[in-house]
Design a protein that fits this description.
Radius of gyration: 28 Å
Shape: globular
Largest sheet: 4 strands, antiparallel
Distance between the termini: 48 Å
Structural class: alpha+beta
Order of helices and strands: HHHHHEEEEHHEEEEHHHHH
Strand order of the largest sheet: 1-2-3-8
Number of strands: 8
Strand content: 5-15%
Oligomer: single chain
CATH class of the domain at 83-147 and 261-389: Mainly Alpha
Helix content: 55-70%
Length: about 400
């Protein structure tokens, strides 16, 4: 009995090239060794060439004075600040245009996607023409077009268009009235709290509707939260708030809030280009919902608008969300084309930095790490949302 067990154990330990598991393990080890050797060669060769040319490596340059100006920034910045702060300003500029672009492209793309399925022939054809033209024109050309429209076809500051009080549109950008005061932070906190409250209230309203069949007036409640909570923040902050109106002084405007031509052109290009792809994603998601859902909801007497909002779109989201993630990632990465029209995004600022410092490898690594972090963050959030709305198998 012991001899038979020993023979069986020896048979299991015998290595044979005919074993597919063994072959797979060997191939993986060889590939891993080849990748490691290639990486070692590239790193060692790069370090040798840098040392031969007396080029220092490392990220110590981030603490040195930048010495160059940045046209616009979300946070205070001056040329006497460090390279690290300059790069942080560029990253925040990238995030600003990406976040605003994602929201605007989603809204516009959803409207276009629904319009493509409209029963109105003219609306459907116009939406289809928009999608086909915009998708087939390179984004870089669209950025050049919008930048030229803003800077060359709009009048100067003295002849600026003045459609509303405090609003001026010229080749220097769009000037808007701005709120100034210590209560702004409190109002922003109130608005953020209102957004969270609306999301939680919407979740409760759906559960309440499923349990009781009663429809909670979510729209009016959400409007009340969005209005009342910022007002409460204004009161809690001591209510010091003033409206800063822009006015013409010399050859340009002073005061107010400025949307520069570079930001406006980049945002317009990204939103218009991405919305065309988003429209196709929304259209395909709606068409993936079985036609019987429309007919069943119509038999209950629901109008087409409520059928789309309450029945079709919630089911279409399960098809829409995965490809929509790719569109959000594309918009964020396409924002790097801002360097072509002079918008100071991350790529533009790092490009200036590496030209002054000679730290090209470190600069490229910073850009790669920043875009990788932002892209993975978007992907993680969208994957979480996709799992949340997915059908649960029983």
């Amino acid at each position: 009995m012991k001899i038979e067990k020993l023979q069986t154990s020896n048979a299991r330990l015998r290595l044979s090239w005919g074993d597919p598991a063994l072959r797979a393990l060997v191939y993986q080890v060889l590939i891993l060794a080849a990748v490691g050797a290639a990486a070692w060669y590239l790193v060692s060769n790069t370090l040798h060439n840098l040392a031969a040319r007396n080029i220092t490596t490392g990220f110590d340059f981030l603490h040195r004075e930048a010495g160059f100006a940045i046209g616009e920034s979300v946070i205070p910045y001056s040329p006497t600040d460090t390279y690290g702060r300059a790069i942080w300003v560029g990253l925040l500029n990238t995030l600003r245009v990406s976040v605003v672009g994602i929201v605007a492209a989603t809204l516009l793309g959803t409207v276009l996607g629904v319009a493509r399925l409209s029963n109105n022939w003219l609306v459907s054809r116009l939406a289809g023409t928009y999608v086909e033209i915009v998708r087939n024109v390179p984004l870089l050309l669209q950025l050049f077009f919008w930048y030229a429209v803003i800077t060359e076809n709009l009048p100067g500051p003295r002849q600026a268009l003045h459609p509303l009080p405090g609003v001026f549109l010229s080749n220097r950008g769009l000037k808007l009235p701005a709120l100034r005061g210590d209560a702004l932070d409190w109002m922003a906190a109130g608005l953020a709290l209102a957004i969270v409250g609306v999301a939680l209230l919407g979740h409760w309203a759906r559960r309440h509707h499923e349990a009781t069949g009663r429809v909670f007036p979510l729209g009016r409640a959400a409007l009340a939260l969005v209005v009342l909570l910022p007002l409460l923040g204004w009161w809690a902050g001591g209510a010091p708030l003033a409206l800063d109106m822009p006015y013409l002084k010399g050859f340009n405007f002073t005061g107010g809030l400025t949307l520069t031509p570079e930001f406006a052109a980049l945002l317009a290009g990204l939103v218009i280009y991405t919305s065309a792809f988003t429209a196709e994603v929304v259209r395909s998601g709606i068409q993936a919902v079985d036609r019987g859902q429309w007919e069943a909801a119509g038999a209950l007497g629901l109008p087409r608008r409520r059928i789309l909002r309450l029945v079709v779109l919630p089911q279409a989201l399960r098809v829409i969300v995965p490809p929509m993630t790719s569109q959000y990632l594309n918009l964020t990465k396409n924002s790097s084309l801002a360097v072509a029209i002079g918008y100071p995004d991350l790529v533009s600022v790092v490009n200036t930095t590496l030209n002054q410092t000679g730290q090209a490898i470190e600069g490229i690594l910073i850009i790669m790490a920043a875009y990788l972090t932002v892209s993975l963050s978007i992907a993680l959030f969208m994957n979480w949302y996709n799992r949340r709305i997915a059908l649960v198998e029983r």
